[in-house]
Amino acid sequence: MSEITRLDQNHRRARAVVHGDTVYLAGHTADDRSADAAGQTRQVLAKIDEMLAAAGSERSKLLNVTIWLADMADFAAMNEVYDAWVVPGHTPARCCGAVTLALPDIKVEIMAVAAR
Q1: Is residue 22 classed exposed, middle or buried when 0-12, 13-18 and 19+ CB atoms within 10 A define those classes?
Q2: Which of 35, 63, 96, 111 is catalytic?
Q3: What is the pTM of this model?
Q4: What does the pLDDT look like over 28-61, one tens digit per residue?
Q5: Distance CA 78, CA 89 (A)
Q6: Cα 115 from Cα 93, distance rounded (Å)
Q7: Matching InterPro entries, A to Z (predicted)?
Q8: Can you point out the beta strands (E) in the chain?
Q9: Is 96 a catalytic residue?
């Protein structure tokens, strides 16, 4: 049986869970929520890079990415940042949709699954 490791855990969630050779990241949001969608996307992707590194992975090993936007009008701005971030030839499966996010100043939330 594979061990389960939880990173940055509190009573409600872990920011990452590692099981076997798979890393599951929680939804990540920007710390500076005064930023526009592109700025929030940059912040979130930096957090994802940090969590993947802490779990022994990296963005070239992403398997799946789920992106939630508060407003699909931000789709192009988010994609411009995301497209520059993903590793060419190693793009993950991905979906993106508009949802009501937890707080009104959150424009982007992203969760991911990666191999180690």
Answers
A1: middle
A2: 96
A3: 0.96
A4: 999 999 999 999 999 999 999 999 999 999 999 9
A5: 20
A6: 13
A7: RutC-like_sf, YjgF/YER057c/UK114, YoaB-like
A8: 4-9, 14-19, 22-25, 62-69, 93-98, 108-115
A9: yes
